[in-house]
Amino acid sequence: MVQEDYVMRMIKDMVRMIAKVLLRKDKISYNFPEDEADYSDDDNEYKDIVACLESGDINGAENMLYENFRTGDEGYILMGLDFYQRLNEYNGEYLEAHDYSREEIDDGLRMFSQKQGLTM
After folding, report:
1. Whether the Cβ atoms of residue 32 and residue 43 lie closer than 8 Å to each other
2. pLDDT for residue 2
3. CA-CA to 110 of 20 to 30 Å: which in 43, 65, 71, 76?
4. pLDDT per residue over 15-32, tens digit each?
5. pTM score, two decimals?
6. Based on the number of CB atoms within 10 Å of its own CB, is 9 exposed (0-12), middle (13-18) or buried (19 or more)?
7. In angstroms, rounded to a whole number, what is the distance separating the alpha carbons of residues 84 and 113?
8. Helices 74-89 & 41-54, crossing angle to 10 degrees?
9. Measured between alpha carbons, how far is residue 36 from residues 45, 49, 61 in Å?
10. Model confidence at 40, in pLDDT bands (50, 70, 90)?
């Protein structure tokens, strides 16, 4: 439990640091428009990713995130950081039940940041 808490905090701090460096923001939160008719293509894409994540298909959601990878696009960076932040908020039992681990979140976040040009 202590190890999981440590890794969770480390991931949270990494998200915050990446957001600060790449987006000049202290906090990350992907906000959808109130009216679905106002959704952009990015909003629709991320809505599908979040739905996949919430249904327990974590690997599928992560694959969807990388399908349209865009380097340097602030909206996409926000989407990716929010994804890993959301994923990190799930408890260990949920992750384990869906064949995923906290270490995979860490690895995915590191890979995402490296593909954005930030080495850690």
Report:
1. yes
2. 67
3. 43
4. 999 999 999 998 899 999
5. 0.93
6. exposed
7. 11
8. 20
9. 12, 16, 20
10. very high
Q: Would you call 15 helix, strand, or coil by DSSP? A: helix
Q: Which two tokens stand for residue 38?
A: 């106002």
Chain centroid to CA 11 = 10
What tokens appear for 119 in the block?
């080495």
Residue 67's SS3 state is: helix
Q: Ramachandran region of residue 93, left (φ > 0), alpha (ψ -120 to 50) or beta?
A: alpha
Q: b/e map of 107-119 (b: 16 or more CB within 10 Å)?
A: ebbbebbeebeee
- Quick check: 80 and 88 in contact, CB under 8 A? no
CA distance 25 to 55: 29
Tokens found for residue 41: 């293509």
118 neighbors 18 (Cβ within 8 angstroms)? yes
Distance, CA of 77 to chain centre: 9
Other beta carbons less than 10 A from residue 47's beta carbon: 14
